[in-house]
Amino acid sequence: MDSRPGRILIPRDEIAARVTSLGEAIRRDYAGRAPILVGVLKGAVVFTADLIRAIALPVSLDFMSVSSYGSGTRSSGVVRLTADLSVSIEGRDVIIVEDVIDTGRTISYLRRNLATRHPRTLALCVLLDKVARREVEVPVDYAGFAIGDEFVVGYGLDHDGFHRGLRDIAVLERDPAR
Ligand code: PRP
Predict the structure, then answer these.
(1) Could you give the CA distance from residue 85 to residue 95 in angstroms, rounded to a whole number?
(2) Which of the four, 91, 100, 108, 170, has the lowest number of CB atoms within 10 Å?
(3) Measured from the CB, is residue 22 less than 6 Å from ligand 1?
(4) Is 93 noted as a catalytic residue in this protein?
(5) Strands 93-101, 121-129: parallel, antiparallel or unpaired by DSSP?
(6) 0.90 exceeded by pTM
(7) What is the CA radius of gyration of the chain?
(8) What is the pLDDT of residues 109-168, one digit of tens each?
(9) Residue-by-residue DSSP string for the chain
(10) CA-CA distance, 114 to 177, in Å (whole number)?
């Protein structure tokens, strides 16, 4: 089966405008504080890089890496931590930054994991929310766009490791095997 980016679902200018407004909302909510953004590798790298520049506060940055067992276009549901934070978050205002929530299993695992480290507050900022796919309820504090059950690539999101560098978010187009 072959695949490529097809129809553009969210063009770059809409992404930029939404990131700006998310950054403003976070600045208002965290006025007088110095939150730490925790980007979830790898998909959230592009979003995190833009978001940190949209928050007019002293913000620090760290990353975690998690992966689901299995491959293909669906989450397997089993999450493991593959790289941890480099700093303590005890007493800090933590904002997890994710590119997409699908079943909710990854973010549910991350929230539980980070909560054990006693942050002052723990929030979630996600660019894309596949609401209809949710299997585990997770509170979403800041959401960019609600999208349907489509496999999307670009702006950090991949298919088999590729297409993360696309500036727009596009629907993956698949050819039936010949
Ligand atoms: C994606 C995304 C989330 C997870 C969401 O990561 O970044 O971490 O899937 O799915 P869930 O809500 O069903 O758990 P992916 O496994 O594609 O890894 P990547 O970020 O390295 O691309």
Answers:
(1) 13
(2) 91
(3) no
(4) no
(5) parallel
(6) yes
(7) 16
(8) 999 999 999 999 999 999 999 999 999 999 999 999 999 999 999 999 999 999 999 999
(9) -EEEEEEEEE-HHHHHHHHHHHHHHHHHHTTT---EEEEEETTTHHHHHHHHHH--S--EEEEEEEEESS-SSS--S-EEEEE--SS--TT-EEEEEEEEESSSHHHHHHHHHHHTT--SEEEEEEEEE-GGG-SS----SEEEEE--S--EEBTTB-BTTB-TT-SSEEEEEEEPP-
(10) 43
What tokens appear for 50 in the block? 């833009």
- The closest alpha carbon to 139, from 97, 108, 93, belongs to 108
Residue of 96, 101, 164 to test ligand 1 pocket, by largest number of atoms within 8 Å of CB? 101
Q: Which pLDDT tens digit goes with each residue over 3-62?
A: 999 999 999 999 999 999 999 999 999 999 999 999 999 999 999 999 999 999 999 999
154 CB within 6 A, ligand 1: no
Ligand 1 contacts CB of residue 98 (under 6 A): yes
**List 93, 99, 102, 129, catalytic entry:** 102
Closest ligand 1 atom number to CA of residue 157: 22
Kindly give the distance from the C-alpha atom of residue 105 to the centroid of ligand 1, in angstroms, as a whole number: 9
